[in-house]
Each structure stands twice: as C-alpha cells, then as structure tokens.
Amino acid sequence: MRIGIVCPYLWDVPGGVQAHVRDLAEALIEDGHRVSVIAPASDDAPLPAYVVSAGRAVPVPYNGSVARLTFGFLSANRVRKWIREGRFDVLHVHEPAVPSIGVLACWVARGPIVATFHASYQRSRAMSVAAPMLQSALEKITGRIAVSDAARKTLVEHLGGDAVLIPNGVTVGRYAEAEPLPGWGPDGGVIGFLGRMDEPRKGLPVLLEAFAKLAPERPGLRLMVAGPGDADDVYARVPRDLHDRVGLLGLVSEADKVRAYHSVDIFCAPNLGGESFGIVLTEAMSAGAPILASDIPAFRRVLGDGQAGALFATGDAAALAREAARMLDDQALRAKLSAEARLAVRKYDWSTVARDVLRVYETVVGAPVSVEDDPL
Amino acid sequence: MTTTVILVVGTIVLLTAVYISWRAGRLDRLHIRLETAQAALDAALLRRSAVCLELAGSRLLDPATSLVLAAAAHEARTAGPDEREHAESDLSRTLRAVVDQERFREKVHAPELLEELDSAVAKVVYSRRFYNTAVGVTRVAQRRWLARTLRLAGHTDYPLFFEIDDAPPAALAAE
C-alpha cells in the first residue's frame, strides 16, 4: 500500500506526535508498505529517507504550550506537490485540528483520508473558535482514530462524530538495552526527568521543589533533566548550593535518550495533565526504569494502577518527595517495579498498533481511488 | 444613484449565489463520503459473515458450535434491510459465545483463519464508526434551513444510523 503521513510538528525536535509518526512509519515500512512522511524540519536537520521537509517551523503559542508550526500558502503548495507526486492509496494526517500542515493537507487533498487525534483538553478556546473554520477541511476525513479515551472525548466534544480507539505504540526492543550515560547512575541516587523544561504541563517545577526537599538529607542524590528549555529558569527554582547536583543535558539525541532511561534509579513523570497517553512513560517502561508518576488518568491506566510504577498525587511536591524517598530506600521495590514495567509495556508494542492502523486504512480504501490534490 | 443601487443589489445577488453553490457543493461532497462509508460498512459486514461461514465449515469446531455459527452467519447475510441490524447483532453475540469458549485457541489450530476473523471483526467496528460519523454530519447539513428551503439535498434520503452490537470476542480484542 502507498501511504502518505503528515506530521504537523517540527521533525527534529523530540515530541510525542513526532515519535508516533516515526515509529508508525517504520513499522509500516518493515511490513512492506511504501511510506512517505511530510513534516516541518529545520534547514540543516538530517532526515531519514522516508521524510520530506515541508519547510521551516515558526514557534507559536498554541493551546497552553509553545508549538513549532508551519503554515501559509507556500507550505500548502509544498504539501499539494507532495500529494500529487506521491500518488498515495491513503493519506494519514496527524492532529488535523492543529494549525499546521495537517489541516493544510486535508484542505488540498481528496480521497481516502485517515486522521489521528492525539491531544486532549478540557475545553479549548482555540478549538471552539476554530471548529467552524476547520469544518470543511475536517469533513474530508473518512476515518478518525483517537490515541486515548481522553483524546476521543475531546474530539467528540469539540468536533462531534466518533473515532476508533487505537492507543500509542512503543518499539519496546529499541529501549530494552543500553549503556548508561558516563557520570550517571544507576548508583542508588539518580532521579531522572525527560521533556520540555519550559512547558508547565510537564510539571518540572513540582519535581524541582521535591528535589529541594530531599537533597539536603541525601548527599548522594542527583537530578538529571533531559530536554530543551532555558537552563537559567530551572536553576532559579533550585537553592544555590544544590546547583552542582542538578545536571541539565539539554536536548538529547535518540540514542542518548535511551541511555538516559538506563542511567536513573527513579524515572519521574510529574505531568500536571493534558498528556493523552504516556509515550515517555512507555519508553521508560521498555527500558525497565523504576517509575514514579503523577496519578493523572492516562498514567494510572498505563501503569496498571500502580502495579508497574509508583504514583503520587498530581502537583503535590511533598507527596512526590515521600514516594521518591520510599523508592530510594528500597532496592527490592525498585527491582520489582522495573520487572513489572517491562512486562506491562508489551501490549503497547508497535507491531500490535501498526496492524490495527493498517486495518483502518483497509477499511477506508475500499474503493479503487487514490489520494489526489483537490483543485478547490 | 440608480447605478449604485444596481451595483449593490448585483453584488448581493452574486454573493448569495456563490454562497448557495458552495453549500450545495459541500452537501454533495458529504453525500459522496456517506456513500463510500456505506459501501465500506457493507463490505466489512459481508466479509465477517463469510469468514464465520468458513470457520463453521472448516471442521475445526465441534458440530454443534459449527451449526450455531453457520446459522447466525447465514441469517446475517440474508437479512432484509429491516432485520439487518438485528441479525448482525446476533452474529456478534454468537461469535462471542463461540470464540470465548474455554481453551478455544488451543483447540482451533488455524492461525491464519483466526487472524482473518480478528481482522474482519475489527473492520466491522471501524467501518461502522466511520459510517455513523458520516451520517451525523450529513444529517446536520441536510437539516439546515437553507438546505431544506432550497432542497439542496435533491432526492437523497435522510440517512439512518446503523446501530448494532459489534463488541468483539474478548479473546480477539486488541489488548
């Protein structure tokens, strides 16, 4: 099958949607399909052979966080050209309600279109305002997929209609084995965090507050933070004498990310909400990292109600510190959580997910037409 | 003065015409999408009953189970438009009873056939969701004041939702 996939976010910055698109594309290619992905990319970014650049992305505040998006007539033309040359059997658009090339692709194409909705929000003003404007583009979508119950609920509330539920996948094998990063654990005292430092929803401030409580009593304790953002903002939240015990790795490569999961004694996901699925969590689980996560519904479900990772009350730094202390003091508990996590993550492996997505393609393709550009 | 009036009226008429034609075009696109979704749903249902009949006739099951499954699949395939939702729901229930028997997977050594069944069942769920979503959107568009007054929908019927019990057997479910 010839499949065209549209990713709305900047390809060379790590993120849940980008990772989803990459893993889906690779699983489909492995299965013998012809896949082309179009995504915004920086000029000098190295791209895999199956990715086509849609041009540079502009940072714009959108829906409570800063997103790097691509829009405008030039981008629309690039997408149109890609569709015309790709002659796809099915077009798969990710996050079509985000103002980026996803919605542009719906706008300029016709034929079998599948869309995956990732994000979930309570009530988004942006979505409510945009819904009528997006209507004619979104009406072209034949099959809709939601990656979580929360994402599906958001979709039903804001845009109406229904979607099928296909959860995110994780390439378990890619994370299973790696050398720890030099100079880091696991040595009994490393807590790790991965994600954008400057995005409030990721909850880094909660972890920093808990770290400031724990660190004075535990001289061996260190904090490892991997992800893009402003270092000064982070240091401003930590007492001065603890600065040398907080390591900011900045934006890490894929390989280093895997190694980071293997370098910690506790992997902490203090998200405050808005996370429709825990892709970072399932990666850490594949690596067998002992996990401590906020008890937002998505994390609670992925972690089997605390079976495969410890949970603490969302946003509560004291509760985080208490649970972390319990885990740090108990080597056997960490080993048990690690083993349970590796077991629980198997049902999220990409091979299962890609098979289900392919069935959606087959459902909408039915008629012998391919995706064309729509002359409007 | 009169030229201004003519110009203004002319512009209004032109804009109205463009708007109405755009709305009609949109409704037409929705109808095409609905027809495609309906064809996909139809194909998925037929495929499911065909795979069920194949399983029933495969001699992999005991004769009683075969008979129950074959009867339900036959009913689903031959049901008229009015009984179809009923018959398809019955097939879903029968299929659950058959596949969720104890040790079904151990007894039935036909991985390819079971994979096909799994896929056919999932596609019924998918295509029905997509069809019902298309019905919802089309209904709203048809009910709009403009569409009703000017009969933009032409002779197209008011589309009906397809409501059945399509829950897959527990042993086949994705997770």
Automatic annotation (TrEMBL), chain A:
Residues 14-172 form the Glycosyltransferase subfamily 4-like N-terminal domain. InterPro entries: Glyco_trans_4-like_N, Glycosyltransferase_grp1. SUPFAM superfamilies: UDP-Glycosyltransferase/glycogen phosphorylase. This is GDP-mannose-dependent alpha-(1-2)-phosphatidylinositol mannosyltransferase. CDD domains: GT4_PimA-like. Keywords: Glycosyltransferase, Transferase. Gene3D superfamilies: Glycogen Phosphorylase B. Signal peptide: none annotated. GO terms for biological process: carbohydrate derivative biosynthetic process. It comes from the Bacteria. PANTHER family: SULFOQUINOVOSYL TRANSFERASE SQD2. It holds the Pfam family Glyco_trans_1_4. GO terms for molecular function: hexosyltransferase activity.
From TrEMBL, chain B:
It comes from the Bacteria. The chain crosses the membrane at residues 6-24. Keywords: Membrane, Transmembrane, Transmembrane helix. This is Membrane protein.
